[in-house]
Specification:
With about 250 residues, the protein is α/β, with parallel strands linked by helices. The chain is about 40% helix and about 15% strand. It contains 9 helices and 7 strands; from the N terminus they run E-E-H-E-H-E-H-E-H-H-H-H-E-H-E-H. The protein has helices at about 30-35, 65-75, 90-100, 120-140, 155-160, 160-170, 175-180, 200-210, 230-245, and strands at about 5, 15-20, 40-45, 80-85, 105-110, 185-190, 215-220. A 7-stranded mixed beta sheet has the order 1-3-2-4-5-6-7, with helices on both faces. Helix 8 (about 200-210) links the parallel strand 6 (about 185-190) and strand 7 (about 215-220).
Length: about 250
């Protein structure tokens, strides 16, 4: 798995920030944040298998599988106090990483973190049910094979390879509410008011599930703009200063 460490020279910084990108992203999504924080913390930017500069896995990986890959990478590094910063899908991986390797995670920051089921309207559920039935019907009859070429599923699903589609399906079908209840480390939950992918209600719900979590909603930010939000950057800095006592004062 490809990763980049900042600062590039050997350092004795006591804190490590591990950045885990969202679905379809890469380590570059966190470049501005990592550059800013690299003066005071070692920043590890990952490309999960199948994204960016990392090779695609041979078989679909679940979020827990991705967490194990992250754990293997971190195990090769000197031990430091570690904060996981996850965007969207990266938050799924962070929760699994905490539950699988609790001693390796000292804190978490979610930027538009995914992992919970959206509250859907009855109309949406009926539409989804009909789409699933239609897809099964098309697969049963060969003379309807031309319909398989019609756009179906989300954009992420349509653009993914067969292996990565399998990984995406495993991820979106997973509800991490029960695992989130087991998270006891300090957590910062930052969401955008204009995010339709991972709405801010996720952050409020995560705050209720986790033992020690702070939730903030940033007005006007969406699923991607939150990654370069000065407000989000300031919230992370204040969180690190208050909870880990090793930041600019």
């Amino acid at each position: 798995m490809f990763y980049l460490v900042l600062p590039k020279e050997k350092n004795n910084l006591p804190l490590r920030l591990v950045f885990i990108h969202g679905w379809g992203g890469s380590y570059q999504a966190f470049s501005s944040l990592a550059e800013y924080f690299s003066d005071e913390a070692e920043c590890v930017l990952l490309d999960l298998p199948g994204f960016g500069k990392s090779d695609e896995p041979k078989a679909p990986m679940s979020p827990a599988d991705y967490a194990e890959e992250v754990a293997k990478t971190l195990a090769q590094m000197p031990k430091k106090k570690t904060i996981i910063v996850g965007h969207s899908f990266g938050a799924r991986v962070a929760i699994h990483l905490y539950n699988l390797h609790k001693k390796s995670v000292n804190g978490m920051v979610f930027l538009a973190g995914a992992g919970l089921k959206k509250k859907r309207s009855i109309r949406f559920r009926i539409k989804a049910f009909c789409m699933k039935k239609a897809a099964r019907f098309v697969r049963r009859f060969s003379f309807l094979s031309f319909l398989k070429k019609l756009p179906m599923g989300s954009r992420d699903y349509r653009e993914a390879t067969p292996v990565m589609r399998g990984a995406l399906v495993m991820a979106v079908n997973e509800d991490l509410a029960e695992l989130a209840k087991k998270v006891t480390c300090p957590a910062l939950l930052v969401y955008g008011s204009d995010d339709n992918e991972t709405p801010s209600e996720f952050g409020r719900r995560y705050q209720g599930l986790m033992r020690d979590a702070e939730f903030f909603e940033i007005k006007g930010e969406n699923h991607l703009s939150i990654l370069v939000s000065p407000v989000a950057q300031n919230l992370i800095e204040e969180f690190l200063k208050a909870r880990f006592k090793c930041w600019r004062c």
